[in-house]
C-alpha cells in the first residue's frame, strides 16, 4: 500500500495512470489482490472515464466502491481503508482516499493530495 502511495506521490496527475482512481484501486490491489477498477482503466479524459464506469453499471466511483466494500463508521476506519470527504455537487468521478493514520491520500488535477481524516464523511473497509 505504501509503495503505491509513494509512487503516486512522485507522479504528475494523468487520467488513467496517475489519478485518484488508480491510486485507490492500485492500493487495494496491492493489499488484497482484488482490483476494484478492473474493466475501468481504459480512459484518458473525464468523458471516457465516465463511459467505462457506466459500461460496468456504475454512475459514479462512489457506486463502484459501495458495490465492492462494506461501509463502516469513519471512526473505525483503519490503515488501508477507503474514505470519502464530502462529494461536491455529486461529482461522479471523485474517488476515495486511502486512509493511513490521521490522513487519507488521494490525487486531483493539481497532483498528490493529503486529506485530514477529520474531513472524511464516509469510510469503507478494505
Topology, please?
Elements: H1 2-9, H2 20-32, H3 46-55, H4 61-68, E1 70-72, E2 82-85, E3 97-100, E4 103-108, E5 111-116, E6 120-125
Antiparallel strand pairs: 1-6, 2-3, 2-6, 3-4, 4-5
Helix pairs in contact: 1-2
Description:
By secondary structure, the protein is an alpha+beta fold. It has a single domain, classed as endopeptidase domain like (from Nostoc punctiforme) (endopeptidase fold (from Nostoc punctiforme), Alpha-Beta Complex), CATH 3.90.1720.10. It is built from four helices and six strands; from the N terminus they run ααααββββββ. The protein has helices at residues 2-9, 20-32, 46-55, 61-68; strands spanning 70-72, 82-85, 97-100, 103-108, 111-116, 120-125. Strands 1-6-2-3-4-5 form a six-stranded antiparallel sheet. The chain is globular, with a radius of gyration of 13 Å. The model has no long low-confidence stretch (mean pLDDT 93).
